[in-house]
């Protein structure tokens, strides 16, 4: 029995000793060499990118880029009746641009205009009541803005809703409304303003989103 065990151990050690054929040794060596070269290449690329990023950061620190002037631009922000949309208006107004406020909430939108007026911004602030989830309303209001204010050169798609319910707790009409406001409305505003921007080769579009698009929240 002891002899049998020794033979099995000997066979096992021989099988684990590696390939006996020189060709197999060559293949194993080539694989090891390839893996090593690949690893070194990736490390070199990573190091090169780190150096480039560090140099770029240092360059921008010493020579910061010139900020784009918003003077005489017509900036349209959606969802300006409260929250981020209202704050965006406060941030844009001091830069000498015309601010166009869109919101379905007429009262909140007017409050935004009143608050801007208290800060001294009265002439270049325009408010419009518009349901951005309604394509016809968007196109009609956009035509009104063009006639009364001018061609929009900066579009900020900020309007959005976030009913906080468990997934199974959303009603069908709520789900539809979320997509109408948070997704489809962007296409309607682009349809309204993008062609003129392309025609004049001048314009900027900003789309705001939420971290909920990247990670869920309880």
UniProtKB/TrEMBL annotation:
Keywords: Oxidoreductase. The keyword Chaperone does not apply. Belongs to the short-chain dehydrogenases/reductases (SDR) family. It comes from Homalodisca liturata. This is Hydroxysteroid 17-beta dehydrogenase 11. It comes from the Eukaryota. GO terms for cellular component: lipid droplet. InterPro entries: NAD(P)-bd_dom_sf (IPR036291), SDR_fam (IPR002347). SUPFAM superfamilies: NAD(P)-binding Rossmann-fold domains. One of its GO terms (molecular function) is oxidoreductase activity, acting on the CH-OH group of donors, NAD or NADP as acceptor.
